[in-house]
Amino acid sequence: MKAHYQTQGFLIILSGPSGVGKGTVCTALRKRMPELAYSVSATTRAPREGEKDGVNYFFKTVEEFKQMIENEELIEWAQYVDNYYGTPRHFVEETLASGKDVILEIDVQGAHQVKERFPHAIFIFLLPPTIEELKNRIIGRGSETEITLAHRLNAATDEFKQINQYDYVVINDEVEKACERVEAIIKAEHCRVDRLVMTE
Amino acid sequence: MKAHYQTQGFLIILSGPSGVGKGTVCTALRKRMPELAYSVSATTRAPREGEKDGVNYFFKTVEEFKQMIENEELIEWAQYVDNYYGTPRHFVEETLASGKDVILEIDVQGAHQVKERFPHAIFIFLLPPTIEELKNRIIGRGSETEITLAHRLNAATDEFKQINQYDYVVINDEVEKACERVEAIIKAEHCRVDRLVMTE
């Protein structure tokens, strides 16, 4: 009898409302967990200075992007203003097959799309400690009018209602604590009895 | 809206076959996680030199112990040769209510009893990397005859079949790695969405 943990990597979805700090937590996680693979998004927006194709984004024309949607090459996608953003399936599937865990940092809408395609992925909802704290963080960005602030807070309230579709909730009270929790979740998931492989 | 993690502690069961290293892992965990409460067993065996009542064990007479069984004051118990061993309910429940997690290191039979009384406890099966490794560890203790060795290995094989009743499997390839896994499991369980408390 020999027992070992699954060699296939796990797909981890880090989602939550706009302003909760998904990007900050992901940046801190990269330092903490260099063994994790971070999915690179495809986008139709123009590269900013210093951004590299295949590193920051896969830069696509609108035509290429629409072709990817049609060919089901994206596991989730969305349009913001004039630009498209999405997660290429190929990179995710190849990386998981190689045994690496992959983390996706996406909005709640995107997470919903992924859930349909990857029901066994690990879904983590990043939560602000209070709605007031979320408000402060959005205001802190300084880029919001009162109307868009109200819009974002309403959207967040709607998104909180979807929390039960997630497996875990990580309260982002402090970035380092939030990272510790995400790391523990990933390690623990590898130990779940239904992920174990037993051979004679 | 305010979200916070449950303030009630969790009951964690660390179980597995005889010889797998439950005691060693628990001793290492005590150093690593001093915030965890370690359940103190009741026993009818005589105290050894230096052992303190309420610290190493709660020392009981056979009559007292039988009374505890009758009063359902034990969440699991067993008889080995002439002595009784069991886990007092009072300490576990008081400690959980105070907000501390409690870990029980017990055999598979005991874990089964706890599962009936505490179905929401977190059940961790400590597994040897291979059955050969388990054999070597039991032999390494030097206290086994060939007959008891065969008996222990048979018992272990039966116990492996109950693994699906557990939530997690921790492979005890190295003590420190095993401890890291247990620690991650406990942290992750605190983040499970069904443990979250949301208030308006």
Automatic annotation (TrEMBL), chains A, B:
InterPro entries found in the cross-reference section: GK/Ca_channel_bsu, Guanylate_kin-like_dom, Guanylate_kinase, Guanylate_kinase_CS, P-loop_NTPase
CDD domains the UniProt entry points to: GMPK (cd00071)
Keyword Cytoplasm attached: yes
SUPFAM superfamilies linked: P-loop containing nucleoside triphosphate hydrolases
Keyword set includes Cytoplasm: yes
Catalysed reactions listed for this entry: GMP + ATP = GDP + ADP
Subcellular location: Cytoplasm
EC number annotated for this UniProt entry: 2.7.4.8
Chain sites annotated for binding ATP: 16-23
Enzyme class: transferase
Lineage: superkingdom: Bacteria
GO cellular-component term (any): cytosol
Chain ranges of the Guanylate kinase-like domain: 9-187
Molecular-function GO terms, alphabetical: ATP binding; GMP kinase activity
Assigned protein family: Belongs to the guanylate kinase family.
Functional note: Essential for recycling GMP and indirectly, cGMP.
Name the record gives this protein: Guanylate kinase
Organism expressing this protein natively: Thermoflavimicrobium daqui
Source taxonomy: Bacteria, Bacillati, Bacillota, Bacilli, Bacillales
